[in-house]
Amino acid sequence: MLFHTPIFLGFLGIVFCLYYFFPRLRLYLLTLANIIFYLSAGVAYFFVFIGIVTLSYYISRGLLGKYGKWSLIGSISLVLGNLLFFKYSLFLLRNVEKVLGIGLNLQSTFWADLVLPIGISFYTFQIIAYVTDVYKRKLEPAKSWIEFWTFISLFIHSAAGPILRGKEFLPQLRNIQNLKFKPTGFKLGIAYITMGLAKKLLLADQIAPEVNAFFARSAELSGAEAWVAAYLFAFQIYMDFSAYSDMAVGIGHLLGLRIDLNFRTPYLSANSGEFWRRWHITLSGWIRDYIYIPLGGSRVSKLRSYANLVFAMTLSGLWHGAAWTFIIWGLYHGFLQVGHHIYKGWIQKLGWEKLQTSRLYRVVAVFVFFHLVVIGWVFFRAQGISNALHMVKVMLTMNPLHIQPAMYEYLAFVAALFLLHMLEAYIVKRFSRLSLLWQLKVPALVRAAVYTIIIIVLQYNLEGEHNSFIYFQF
């Protein structure tokens, strides 16, 4: 059940009405809604999901007892085993085939038909965070299976994030009966949902065919074509992923629940550290809190902290998919992080810290780092390492004087997308003020006309076939 389909919007409308008509039954209503949402994705995988959640809940009940450590190990082993089986077993077996030079005839086994359950990576990380925090007594455990199930499986976010933390979300569930309908929250929710639909239907899905066409012949692309392909994919994946997250935040506002923002216009970042504070924020926070810091974080020697950074980012790449291209993408971002730390050290030694505060420096840094990110996206999207390496090679050796005339239209479109990204940053930063001005300064008739046009355009694009969200495959 995709967020940008009429059937989901109808489902959401029913849930919304029942949610406010029967406040005492809200937790049970969300429990049922989550079940219906996941059943629509497949009956077999639904039972795997609810089985994993149920086992995790009952195993985790021993986290504060005498055998708490074993409960922690058991819970983490269960969800990681589930993730490894569905997401990485075929990848591992194929690499065993190559290394040992043996034929396992995998195409004739059930592994070839294994489908990745929706949201498996997200609920795995969420359960790991929950049991770790309960074990360390940073979080009061769920009071019932229904509370735990609703927290883990909430249809608002669990298919593709944001990753919820128990410390922020479980208290909201415990107070859910007392939440009141707020017109301001409703308007904000509709605004986020509309923004998400626009990003997905009017931008990401319109860019997708061009991206697919370019990457289908990635081994033949010229330097200019490779840059255009990488630029377009950079905006496709941002618009697609942030669209889902925006809609999740918006649905949360409709129900009076606070869901963390997952993106803050990341392509305006000036360095790697800033990028990961603005891109997939909840995953970045998870990697920091449950991998990087437990490994020693920055409390150890510089060399060790750099190794921790690279390892954590490489693991982040592997989390995205069972392929060497994802691993290289994570490794690449790990080295970007290390490079930024080393660069900061040089700046401090030379006493050039004030240079970084200038507007010109900021503009240049954003320009340079955006292109570094775009190069990384090639490994994320390309089919195979050889295709990715070819694209990067022609991108880095391109003669800017030999750009095909047809590419200038694409480059102008990319520039427009970047300007739109800057406009988004401006609006988000001043959202409250602009919203007030919209209500006070713009005549009601004009506002009604704008709303009508938006509804007509979105309704037109809601019809027909729909592309799934990119992050559903992770």
From TrEMBL:
Pfam family, one: MBOAT
Annotated GO biological process: alginic acid biosynthetic process
Any one GO molecular-function label of the UniProt entry: acyltransferase activity
GO cellular component labels: plasma membrane
Main location group: membrane
Coiled-coil annotated spans: none
Subcellular location: Cell membrane
Transmembrane regions listed in the UniProt entry: 7-23, 35-58, 70-90, 110-132, 144-164, 318-339, 360-380, 410-428, 440-462
UniProt xrefs under InterPro entries: Ac/AlaTfrase_AlgI/DltB, AlgI, MB_O-acyltransferase, MBOAT_fam
Keyword list, A-Z: Acyltransferase, Cell membrane, Membrane, Transferase, Transmembrane, Transmembrane helix
Membrane topology: Multi-pass membrane protein
Family label: Belongs to the membrane-bound acyltransferase family.
This protein's name: MBOAT family protein
Biological source species: Paenibacillus albiflavus
